[in-house]
């Protein structure tokens, strides 16, 4: 009987602690009230292009409406800037019940991320990146599904960035 009670107690402890959960896990899961409402649109854009398609088609300077899920690494947000990476929604993220403590890093599908990722930088009215964390500015979190509208920018390796003026949050 003591063995059964010990086993039940251990299962309860494991379920309570979660898999690889850090102290700030709850903070990352709850989106705060956004401070940058001027960057948010309430109506979904009529058309948008998934990240993978945009990587293949968008040229430097093109206007784009990009659909993606925030993630691609363990830290998809750039500290101190309204910037983050998004991954094409067709790439499945890895749920915690499969042993992935940070599902937004796509640990079980990393080979698919390379051709399906883009960087988003939210720009202010002067055209400079907003110097505020995107989580606070937009009220988003890891795995939020967003549509960003802006201008495509390519680096020397062909990586895609979107200089965003507007963001629509499709799913928190």
In terms of structural class, how would the helical and strand content be classed?
alpha/beta
Element order: H for helix, E for strand: HHEHEEHEHEE
Low-confidence stretches: 1-30
**What is the first-to-last residue Cα distance?**
45 Å
Q: Tell me what the CATH architecture is.
A: Beta Barrel
Q: Assign an overall shape.
A: globular
Radius of gyration: 18 Å
Question: How many beta-strand elements?
Answer: 6
Q: Within the largest sheet, what's the order of strands?
A: 2-3-4-6-5
Annotated CATH topology: OB fold (Dihydrolipoamide Acetyltransferase, E2P)
Could you give a short account of the major beta sheet? Answer: 5 strands, mixed, barrel
- Can you give the helix content as a percent range? 10-25%
Which secondary structure elements does this structure contain, and how are they paired or packed?
Layout: H1 2-17, H2 25-29, E1 49-50, H3 51-57, E2 63-70, E3 83-87, H4 110-113, E4 117-122, H5 134-138, E5 145-154, E6 160-171
Parallel strand pairs: 1-2, 4-6
Antiparallel strand pairs: 2-3, 2-5, 3-4, 5-6
């Amino acid at each position: 009987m003591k063995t059964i009670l010990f086993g039940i107690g251990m299962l309860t402890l494991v379920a309570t602690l979660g898999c690889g959960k850090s102290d700030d896990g709850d903070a990352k899961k709850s989106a705060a009230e956004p401070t940058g409402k001027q960057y948010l649109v309430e109506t979904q854009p009529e058309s948008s292009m998934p990240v993978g398609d945009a990587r293949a088609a968008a040229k430097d300077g093109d206007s784009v409406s990009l659909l993606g899920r925030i993630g691609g690494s363990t830290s998809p947000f750039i500290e101190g800037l309204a910037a983050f990476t998004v991954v094409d929604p067709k790439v499945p993220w890895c749920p915690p019940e499969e042993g992935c403590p940070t599902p937004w890093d796509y640990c079980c599908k990393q080979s698919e991320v390379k051709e399906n990722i883009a960087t988003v930088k939210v720009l202010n009215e002067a055209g400079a990146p907003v110097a505020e964390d995107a989580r606070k500015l937009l009220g988003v979190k890891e795995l939020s599904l967003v549509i960003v509208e802006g201008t495509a920018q390519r680096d020397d390796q062909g990586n895609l960035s979107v200089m965003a003026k507007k963001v629509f949050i499709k799913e928190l």
